[in-house]
Amino acid sequence: MTYKRFYVLVEGKDDERFFKRVITPLLEKQYDFVDIYKYSQAKDKKIRGFINSIQCMKAKYVYITDNDCVKCYKTQVKSVLDKHDCIDVNDIVVVIQEIESWYLAGLDKLSCKKLGIKDCVSTIDVTKEDFDRLKPKKFDSRTDFMQEVLKYFDIDTGKHKNASFKYFLNTFCG
After folding, report:
1. Which residues are bridge partners to 8 per DSSP?
2. How many CB atoms neighbour CB 166 within 10 A?
3. 8-state DSSP, 137
4. In this structure, what DSSP letter does residue 71 have?
5. What is the pLDDT of residues 78-117, one digit of tens each?
6. Contacts of 94 (CB under 8 A, 6+ apart)
7. In total, how many domains does the chain have?
8. Which residues sit opposite 125 in a β-bridge?
9. Any residues with CB less than 8 A from the CB of 25 and at least 6 apart, and which?
10. CA 20 to 30 Å from 23, out of 101, 102, 112, 169?
């Protein structure tokens, strides 16, 4: 039996928190080893080396990037490929708009009510700034709010509220 590895390359700590809590348990059902790598502070050369080593091991990986309000997700994909030509285009997932949209996608009406925030039918247009404006004053920090949101997160609700989240799950989590 082959030892199956999966690596998730994420931008920063908010992405890492989300993937550890929501995605890693799903991936661990299919893979023997799942690791999350934060690339925002790493030099491009180090990222390329890491991706090359993953490819040499014949392991699977996904490179997660935010859309960051770019008009077309293809422009964001091209930007990643221009920077890291070793990445396969099929291994890039663009979070639309930003990871905060995925956090909110998993909240149903009851969860929103418990958290004291407005329910969103779709989170596809949610940015960091939108997320920050939603944070109730009862939370000491943005991180506290994010951790609380994850306690209520429902994957099926998330699939209905954010198409890029649904795409990720269908493509990488079977």
Report:
1. 36, 62
2. 16
3. T
4. S
5. 999 999 999 999 999 999 999 999 999 999 999 999 999 9
6. 65, 66, 67, 73, 76, 77, 164
7. 1
8. none
9. none
10. 112
- Residue found under tokens 């091209």: 78
Tell me the two tokens of residue 166: 């649904």
User: Token match 């306690």: residue?
Assistant: 151
Sign for the pseudo-dihedral over CA of 125, 14, 117, 148: positive
Q: Which domain covers residue 15, as residue numbers?
A: 5-172
Classified as helix, coil or strand, 132 is: helix
User: Residue with structure tokens 């004053």?
Assistant: 137
Q: Does the bond joining 97 to the residue before it have cis omega, within 30 degrees of 0?
A: yes
Torsion of CA 84, 87, 90, 94, to 10 degrees: -40
One-letter amino acid at 16 equals E
For 42, the token pair is: 């790493």
CA distance 97 to 65: 10
Global pTM?
A: 0.95
Question: For residue 134, what are the CA distances in angstroms to 64, 71, 114, 165?
Answer: 24, 24, 13, 20
Band (pLDDT 50/70/90 cuts) for residue 65 is: very high
Locate 152 and state its tokens.
Answer: 């209520």
For residue 98, give both structure tokens. Answer: 């930003």
